[in-house]
Amino acid sequence: xxxxxxxxxxxxxxxxxxxxxxxxxxxxxxxxxxxxxxxxxxxxxxxxxxxxxxxxxxxxxxxxxxxxxxxxxxxxxxxxxxxxxxxxxxxxxxxxxxxxxxxxxxxxxxxxxxxxxxxxxxxxxxxxxxxxxxxxxxxxxxxxxxxxxxxxxxxxxxxxxxxxxxxxxxxxxxxxxxxxxxxxxxxxxxxxxxxxxxxxxxxxxxxxxxxxxxxxxxxxxxxxxxxxxxxxxxxxxxxxxxxxxxxxxxxxxxxxxxxxxxxxxxxxxxxxxxxxxxxxxxxxxxxxxxxxxxxxxxxxxxxxxxxxxxxxxxxxxxxxxxxxxxxxxxxxxxxxxxxxxxxxxxxxxxxxxxxxxxxxxxxxxxxxxxxxxxxxxxxxxxxxxxxxxxxxxxxxxxxxxxxxxxxxxxxxxxxxxxxxxxxxxxxxxxxxxxxxxxxxxxxxxxxxxxxxxxxxxxxxxxxxxxxxxxxxxxxxxxxxxxxxxxxxxxxxxxxxxxxxxxxxxxxxxx
Amino acid sequence: xxxxxxxxxxxxxxxxxxxxxxxxxxxxxxxxxxxxxxxxxxxxxxxxxxxxxxxxxxxxxxxxxxxxxxxxxxxxxxxxxxxxxxxxxxxxxxxxxxxxxxxxxxxxxxxxxxxxxxxxxxxxxxxxxxxxxxxxxxxxxxxxxxxxxxxxxxxxxxxxxxxxxxxxxxxxxxxxxxxxxxxxxxxxxxxxxxxxxxxxxxxxxxxxxxxxxxxxxxxxxxxxxxxxxxxxxxxxxxxxxxxxxxxxxxxxxxxxxxxxxxxxxxxxxxxxxxxxxxxxxxxxxxxxxxxxxxxxxxxxxxxxxxxxxxxxxxxxx
Lengths: 510, 317
Known about the structure:
The structure holds 2 protein chains of 2 kinds.
Chain A: H1 34-44, H2 46-68, H3 88-92, E1 101-108, H4 109-122, E2 127-140, E3 143-155, H5 156-159, E4 162-167, H6 169-182, E5 187-188, E6 255-257, E7 260-266, H7 267-275, H8 292-328, H9 330-345, H10 348-363, H11 365-377, H12 379-392, H13 396-403, H14 408-416, H15 421-445, H16 451-454, H17 458-467, H18 474-501
Antiparallel strand pairs in A: 1-3, 2-3, 4-7, 5-7, 6-7
Helix pairs in contact in A: 1-18, 2-8, 2-18, 8-9, 8-11, 8-12, 8-15, 10-11, 13-14, 15-17, 15-18, 17-18
Chain B: H1 2-28, H2 41-51, H3 58-72, H4 87-122, H5 127-141, H6 144-158, H7 175-208, H8 211-218, H9 223-249, H10 255-260, H11 266-275, H12 279-307
């Protein structure tokens, strides 16, 4: 009897309903898929849409700012460090923006004179405006004396003014060549200390002085009287380039200094000689004299790429781990859960530090850092996937598929897993800001130093900025704005996605 | 319930033991820090190392370590930062600063956070709610060093009403000290307040829409009565455990805030021990941070089952 049912010939089967008429109406409305539905819901959430656009803008910034900036990470200026934002063309319009302005208070008249002298010599006035004056009277040797103190808004770039430095003969010659070609005055006539009451530590003084503090001696018309040296015996190198206005032709432009040339030069113009353009820093400079506009871009590139890679790996590991846990359940689940508990119990910072101690010298800090993330980052994802599996594995369609002989792998990844896709996309959008945040924190604390390979990171820039937070707040403000915007938008975006993929959650959480 | 609690605690202790063992061995595998030759403490450290079995197999070392910790609470001696001094003693010197700063912070945060949360939930879907939710979102997303910078810049540099750094010294309860701690406390509080607001709002909005609230109104309670007696109570089921969690967390402190405001606390000590590096110190603090992390999780879970009669996980009755 049994055998009769084993092989029923095909001919014996017949269609039950072949010519029977079906009375169901064809569905006329277009079917709307899960993702389409989610997209519609997402679009309704205005803040998330805005956040998505902001993320796009920030990513574009990260891609393009290092390309558009005339600087690279290697351009480190030794003088323009922690300098405020300055763009010459905007500064010239005198709108109060991007003019390299820095407020200096308690500047006495001597200092004010010095700034004026720089303006008179170089033609670049470092004083943008006088914000206020204050007269303080004091008793000095029995007489009342009134000292005026100025509060000045200064152009930090012009305020550097004239410096002295020792050049090689070749470079001195090159600068002269540059002067001949462009007409920009870099080298200024030499001033001998003995002509200015033996003041040897202030290259800005080029005028006759009354005392060794540098009080200027002016003529009847209140003009400066130059104190340039014309002692040709001490001249360092022949000078055959343009001379400054009022030069009778005898002033010397350099002095000898043990096989090289020492001269006074205008740093701003020297910068043009070195870099081929005027200093122009949209976001100012950091403590290494790098352009912040470019550095933020470089740091952000690293942060974003790193976060996406780490998240991708973690989500994959978490998904596979969680799937196995959820699908098999029982003993396997319990053992794997214990392992996850132990790994998850290790504080992240401990993991990072231990990895750095052991591996940083072998595989480099970035890979080591990524390992630390891989170690603990997947646990959340695994738990989510496991929960989804527990929810779906007992459902009828899964049992049906199993009855039809689907393999474990097929059941797991073809039938159950797609159900948790929404959750996964959502958590992906929320994992990325988490990784960025941790990475920024750790580089900020200096536990991980990525500067050698990645150039810089937002965290590194911020810790550099924090050190000068009160004197050069711009160095902290710009990275702060960038990272805050990035994290806020990612979180808003992630929450929008979560709501969109989770119709039941709508309106319950922000 | 008790059974569940005991079971969880035993699991936790086992997890802790495994993690400690792993970290301990990984730390001991690192090359030893050279000792400064002229320092008289070097000899003491050398003897201590000998006693801790630095030349024996790692498992034996771990055994000695556990024995010392359990019998004498001896965590070894610092060999770099505070050379020759007991790690445990230094740790307990640093703990109060961290605890006080964090305690102030959560004492400020809890009432404000819950009040905002309740307010937002009651005004659900009005502009007040949207405003509070957005601010909460921003407050949670922005990293704490940005707050620290803003507070330092505004209150110290621009207004100069607060000091930039925390005073050193141990007189924690003077007004001066409190004032110098205030920047750190404020920086910590933003995130805490936002966290409590979010939890409270999410929970309360859910409770307010549930059916028993409708029943409460039907039987004649006013909206205020129903909210206070039924909704608020139910929402606390989630909020109270997170308060417990925060209280455990006060000991761990924040590395960033302590670094910026130079709070002489555990976080700062930890950071210094990582950078030095001072391995015995690092070992102890690793165990400490792991314990805090695990304990906070457990306290939250267990307090759920104590507070909410519906959640009696693992109980046989």
